[in-house]
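This entry is passed on directly below:
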Amino acid sequence: MHGHRSIARGRRKTLLADYSTNLGELLSRRQSEAALRSAKVESDMASRTKSEFLANMSHELRTPLNAIIGFSEFIQHIAASGTPSDKTGEYAEHIAGAGRHLLNIISDILDISKIESGTFSLATEMYDLRELIDACIVLIEPRIREKKQVLDIKADPVLPSVPIDVRRIKQVLINLLSNAHKFTAEGGRIVLVATRTPDNGATIAVADTGIGMSKEQIDHAMTPFGQVQSSYARGHEGTGLGLPIAGALTKLHGGEFQIYSEPGKGTTVFFTLPPAKSGKPSPNYQDKQS
């Protein structure tokens, strides 16, 4: 009798062990299936986003190309007819403008591709921030005046020299000023604030009285290939890569990049640049994200 009980207990233990093993395998299999489904959803979303981006780029690229071809054909027709025209200079300027716009689009695509692949590098030097700000203002002021907007500059009397890639930080600031101009109505106000930080670095902010963004729109705007899905970007010229590139370039310099905005109440974007003593900038964006 005792032997039968031992055998029964042994069988129960075996069945329990088999049940536990099978349950563990089932749970592991379901977890793996859930992980695969999640990965597929993420992959499908990334693929769909990039497809939408490429569709948008197709339009962005064709628009200036069509202008270049069309105005070139006008000039060819004028030359073939032998009849002088006062429109030739105007058409040539349209061609040049379309070419510059096309170059900007291609440059944005190349920049974000290098940043995402971790192959983007900086050429840093010590540079006076006041000089950099003045150079950016000269470029943006004509457009601001044309739209009857007000540009206020509030900078510390003495700004530090910091280690930066001059061309790239100009790109960041011009992008922020251009966005403020673009998304602010005629007669609106744009403020540029530049201050020295206690550690001899700098903070630069651009604020506007424009249309503003919700938190969801900010998330889209800061995601490469993502802004094209946002109503914030519709109806406005551009690739939608400006803010992701500006944020990435700031982080490459070891700085911070933040956006504060609310629909109908404008947007404030600020970025920081660390001083020389904080060490050299990160070699690539991927390192900063890991």
Q: What stands out?
A: The radius of gyration is 28 Å. Strands lie at 125-128, 150-155, 161-164, 189-196, 202-208, 257-261, 267-273. The helical segments are 2-81, 88-117, 129-146, 166-182, 215-221, 242-252, 285-289.
